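Friendly challenge for the regulars: who can give me the structure tokens for this chain first? No prize, just bragging rights.
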Amino acid sequence: MNWTALIIFVLLFGAVTILGFAASRWRRGDLDLLHEWGLAGRRLGTVVVWFLLGGDVYTAYTFIAVPALVFGAGAIGFFALPYTIIVYPLVFLILPRMWSVAHKHNFITAGDFVQGRYGNKWLALAVAITGIVATMPYIALQLLGLQVVIGAMGVGTIGFFGDLPLIIAFVILAAFTYTSGLRAPAMIAVVKDTLIYITVLAMVIVIPIELGGYAKMFAMIPPAKLLLTGPKSGNLGQYSAYATLALGSAFALFLYPHTMTGVLSASSRDVIRRNAAYLPAYSFMLGLLALTGFMALAMGVDKLPEFAPQFAQYKSNFAVPALILHSFPDWFAGVAFAAIGIGGLVPAAIMSIAASNLFTRNIYVQFIRPDCTPKQEAQNAKIVSLVVKFGALLFIVFLPLQYAIQLQLLGGIWISQTIPAVIVGLYTHRLNPWALIIGWAAGLVSGTWMVASLGFESAVFPLVVDGLTIPGYAALYALGLNVTVSIVLSLLLNQMPATRGTDQTLAVDYRF
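First reply, four minutes later:
Bragging rights claimed.
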């Protein structure tokens, strides 16, 4: 048991817990209203939204998984860097329109927007279910990140007593989320991001010095892991995989309910534009973080006998914790592990809020209690947020870790299939809602089939076109089918006016 690291971890964790409960008094609002509880009253400014979106996108699992991918697979893991650069110009151009129309019509979720734009509750239901299902394994993986660092401090993670720290963290998360809503992760994100910047900067300065400099570090890494596999013999190799992973991930990122929730909590569309300009600072941090995967390779942490049990349990996900334990004193390891642990709380809180918003607005109100009061609506969302977190906890405790990873892999493919309804819908409502539903289903089925055909081991599908193999992100291939079906069927179904819903929005609403 690493008592020094554990004590510092517990102290920092306790501090952010107090902060989470205190957040209910920050920028006071009536938390019995859903837009106050679930969107912090839409009053968050540039700085807070910057930390909130940073905490939302760059999660505990990011801190663990990106270096783990570089550690295990090599250069292909760096696709995360260009995708987080590509995404922000898209945010700058597209999401102010979403904020404007949502603010005008009190839309709280992407499903609300789809319902207002197309006048079709079934299409809104499809968007809501997709968002909820894609979010659940994402929450579970945040708890995984927390579990990994708890194990790194010497706390057993097997059996009931091994799961007890995770259960305690879940109870704390559930309590302050229920009490404070989105205000809690917004405040905690400031602490979390500060700790993560300190940790990453320390790692990229101290560890290369231990290794004798960056040149010696790269010389220790197998050449096959430093470069992408190039095209050969009718196969584009990792080049097309890298490009499509970056592009497809960029398209999907801000469609996730938790990132959409962060955007809609902003006080103005200018806040979103400013953040689109400032958030690439996190991409710089992500690039440094990805380098730690190479550092772990050069250090050979997986070959150190003291870490053998953890690598057997967590595989390459233990690369960063092992690197921290090997290279830093125990007190700093406590700070670093607290940064990762808190980095799991912030997105998990936002994700559970976003999923509960979707369920409440687009399922509960639409299909179960259309006559519920605003207070009942907010109360239902609070209860659902607890259920969502409890479901994610059960996932980690009782099911194999691989299931959560596989479902999260599918989640990116599934959420991408809402692009025609949500993103295209911000610019035109000419696509028929029933055509969009059929296109969405075609995209889901084809994307899932591609990953299943690979044994759920990868989302890179080897598409063969006229003898040329093009390995690419399955989400993009499925989206291509989705868009084609949606356009073709829209041309046919739009000839029958009864299939088209009523658009409640006006052109001016998108510029408000």
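The chain has 23 helices and two strands. Residues 3-24+39-408 form a domain with the Sodium/glucose cotransporter fold (CATH 1.20.1730.10). Your move, everyone else.
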